[in-house]
């Protein structure tokens, strides 16, 4: 399954869950690598599956501080 990364910082990258998961956004470690690339990971959903995560020029270079599930909004802090 292919998804686009929403944000990346020096510790994590985040993507919106492609399934109807209670956790709307998932995160994985970024290894201090902010470059454009494709990562292959196992999702954190109840029924895990392989996910191809596209980190590209449209990915925010920022930290997600909080997600508001009921409003479908996020609070981010841009990297300096």
In words, what does this structure look like?
The chain is an all-beta fold. The protein has one domain (2-78). Helix content is 0%, strand content 55%. Strands 1, 2, 3, 4, 5, 6 and 7 form a 7-stranded mixed sheet that branches. The mean pLDDT is 90.
DSSP, total strands? 7
Order of helices and strands: EEEEEEE
Number of helices: 0
Structural class: mainly beta
Query: What's the structural domain tally?
Result: 1
- Major sheet: size, sense and barrel closure? 7 strands, mixed
Low-confidence stretches: none
Terminal-residue CA separation = 32 Å
Helix content: under 10%
Overall average residue pLDDT = 90
Question: Cα-atom Rg, whole angstroms?
Answer: 12 Å
Dominant shape: globular
**β-strand amount:** over 45%
Overview in brief:
With 80 residues, the chain is mainly β.
What layout of secondary structure does this protein have?
Layout lengths: L1 E7 L3 E5 L8 E5 L7 E6 L7 E6 L4 E9 L4 E6 L2
Descriptive labels:
single chain; 80 residues; 7-stranded mixed beta sheet
